[in-house]
Design brief:
The complex is a heterodimer of chains A (112) and B (107).
Chain A: E1 4-7, E2 10-13, E3 19-25, E4 31-37, E5 44-51, E6 54-57, E7 64-66, E8 76-78, E9 87-94, E10 102-103, E11 107-111
Parallel strand pairs in A: 2-11
Antiparallel strand pairs in A: 1-3, 3-8, 4-5, 4-9, 5-6, 7-8, 9-10, 9-11
Chain B: E1 4-7, E2 10-14, E3 19-25, E4 31-37, E5 43-49, E6 52-56, E7 59-64, E8 69-74, E9 83-91, E10 94-97, E11 101-106
Parallel strand pairs in B: 2-11
Antiparallel strand pairs in B: 1-3, 3-8, 4-5, 4-9, 6-7, 7-8, 9-10, 9-11
Classes of the chains: A mainly beta (112), B mainly beta (107).
Chain lengths: 112, 107
């Protein structure tokens, strides 16, 4: 089955702790994206990567970090510097140059 | 200012009603998506269109490039259509998302 997986579905962390969200795809897509979704707001781009070992900041990258060591994987770390980390995080991927993205099921992060 | 504006923000309909959700955008685009997000949070793509009209079952999407406007119509609405519908436009490498329209269809 081809698709995008994100784990875990729900994640709880104490304030001040770093946490890493997983995103894996077996669609052989070159590009991968991380979005944040808050109530009443559209999806906002955190980071994206168009190729292995390369990534760019999106609109709200502060307090986040990513890596792209493998084509299949694009983990997102929410650091203690992110002031409002509680949100729903969506990962997506797309073939290079394509006009469509495929979304994972999302991870709901709650920082207590 | 949002590059993509959707209306209405919230919509409640009786089962069987015809529903229209609107999307206006301010950037040049290569394509426009209509996405559906169910309460669990996962997002699926309903349509991608760059001109004219597309139909899939009870769903119809139209786009007017000159007016920078798209509509999503649902005919004979059903409670299982209850979801958030998101309009997204693509400009180069950048995706711009609307804030979504929350639809509730009451039996």
């Amino acid at each position: 089955d081809g698709g995008i997986t994100q784990s875990p579905k729900y994640l709880f962390r104490k304030e001040g702790q770093n946490v890493t969200l997983s995103c894996e795809q077996n669609l052989n897509h070159d590009a991968m994206y991380w979005y944040r979704q808050d109530p009443g707001q559209g999806l906002r781009l955190i980071y994206y990567s168009q190729i292995v070992n390369d990534f760019q900041k999106g609109d709200i990258a502060e307090g986040y970090s990513v890596s792209r060591e493998k084509k299949e994987s694009f983990p997102l770390t929410v650091t203690s510097a992110q002031k409002n980390p509680t949100a729903f995080y969506l990962c997506a991927s797309s073939p290079q140059g394509a006009d469509t993205q495929y979304f994972g099921p999302g991870t709901r992060l709650t920082v207590l | 200012k949002n590059e993509v504006e959707q209306s209405p923000q919230n919509l409640t309909a009786q089962e069987g009603e015809f529903i229209t959700i609107n999307c206006s955008y301010s950037v040049g685009i290569s394509a426009l998506h209509w996405l559906q997000q169910h309460p669990g949070g996962g997002i699926v793509s309903l349509f991608m269109l760059s001109s004219g009209k597309k139909k899939h079952g009870r769903l119809i999407a139209t786009i007017n490039i000159q007016e920078k406007h798209s509509s999503l119509h649902i005919t004979a609405s059903h409670p299982r259509d209850s979801a958030v519908y998101i309009c997204a436009v693509i400009n180069g490498n950048q995706f711009y998302f609307g804030t979504g329209t929350s639809l509730t269809v009451i039996p």
